[in-house]
User: What shape does this take?
Amino acid sequence: MTIPVLDKDSVLSSMSSHPAVRSMTPEMLASPAFDATYDRGELTLTVAPEHIRAAAAAVQQAGYNFLEDVTAVDWLPAEPRYQVSYHIVSHTLKERVRLRIFVDSIIGGADSITPVWPSADFYEREVFDLFGIRFHGHPNLRRIMMPDEFEGHPLRKDFPVEGYR
Amino acid sequence: MSQFTETSSLLAARPEDPTKDRTMILNMGPQHPSTHGVLRLVVEIDGETVIKIVPDIGYLHTGIEKTCEAKFYQQVVPLTDRIDYLSPMSNNLCYCLAVEKLLQLEIPPRAQWLRVMLNELTRLNSHLVWLGTHAMDIGALTVFLYTFREREDILRIFEHVAGQRMMTSYFRIGGISLEPPLDFFAIVQNFIKRMPSKIDEYQNLLTGNPIWVDRLKGVGHLSAADAIALGVTGPPLRASGVDWDLRRDMPYSSYEKFDFKVPISHDCDVWARYVIRLEEMRESVKIIQQALDGMPEGPVTADAPKIVLPDREKMKTEMESLIYHFKIVTEGFPVPAGEVYQAIESPRGEMAYYVVSDGTAKPYRVHMRNPSFATLQALDTMCRGRLLADVVAVIGSIDIVLGEIDR
Assistant: This one.
């Protein structure tokens, strides 16, 4: 049971009628950061960090009404270092799409999508707390898991896992 | 978290003139019995009316996601039990499904059906604890004793099949760890036969009780639009009139072969959540009965010698099995690079594992999307403008488990 893996060009050509792919604006598609893959039955659309709020609003318009999850991956030592993944499901299409952005360790942030989905509040706070990625326009970007005076961000790959602090 | 966070920093600034300061700030928890764990709520009240609630979490944060990164794929399974002590099998299943999706592994039907059956038993188990504690929070102490009687039966079934009452770790990547004992199906059948009358019994104790009705009806209103905007899943979402159940709408582990109803209510209140969970228990009983009736024969693990540990007997006679066993235990097994998001309908709502692999034998990143974490965001919306005493009813109705929120 092997599902074929589709890269950017084949997703854009063979899945062009897919609602999530169709919702991407020409501006997003033209960005060098844009990428699309279809792997193991999951569609991933990578957009430029500055487009994330617009992309979230676009897929919401396309029927993907429920934000399930926001999380991040630290790809140390690669640059851009952080990947932020947004999982969005459609209750009518019964289908899921993953939006993805790559965030530079120097810029270290992206626009918050709380104006699109208020539920992103806790998820983005968690990502901020554990990875140190800032979300601009978040109403209440405070630590959520760790104590306020805690130093460092535990889920970063360079966070020490042993020894005294 | 914030045992050190000043209460003032969680809420808006107080007016300078103390005579204009009409509201009071109340700390509820972290050791409050009705918060089901260590949840701290900072509640702003005007008299008895709730103005605002700010949940403060993180007291149970143990860094399970970070720990997963240091383990082999198969070693993560016992960690997943510890996230939610009421639904260990759901966590096991969700993690195993995610890794199996990464490996593109086919699971034999018998294992899939057993997984469904055990997951529905887990749902019963979790809903029984929810019903008992929810009723106890509201003051109906007796129900707790009744529900824990049946829960004990389920825990005995778990112990019989997995050797553990709560932290079962029974599922494996590629199937389940062992063929269940011979009398297992008879025990489950016996339990299932009794269960519907027990659910009637709980209903008799509660549904007609005027105190219970007054405390639940019209309390904790959450509209469908708010529920979707705030990320609410599971029974609270269905109680708000959104017809969405992952078991039916995005089936996994052969759920598409089972016939069951998804209860929906448009009342949007605590009462609706109570009714829906009771209905779900009845549906779970039906699913378990179907699984018992149509249980397929065959192996309980996939035919993948490099991933699934070999049979103990074979290890004593076959060289290859011994080598595979040694390799899996000492080196793990590499998983092709990629990322998957696998969601299942846990007793509390949508539970999902997001597993990222870099091609080695250890996961690069494991993230759990837990239903309680998102549902907690809706607490403020549900309680605002209501009485302080209703907060307890609302917390009970969203059925949170703090271990799962803080991970």
Notes: Strands of chain B lie at 24-28, 40-46, 49-56, 171-172, 175-176, 338-346, 349-357, 365-369. Residues 7-56 of chain B form one domain.
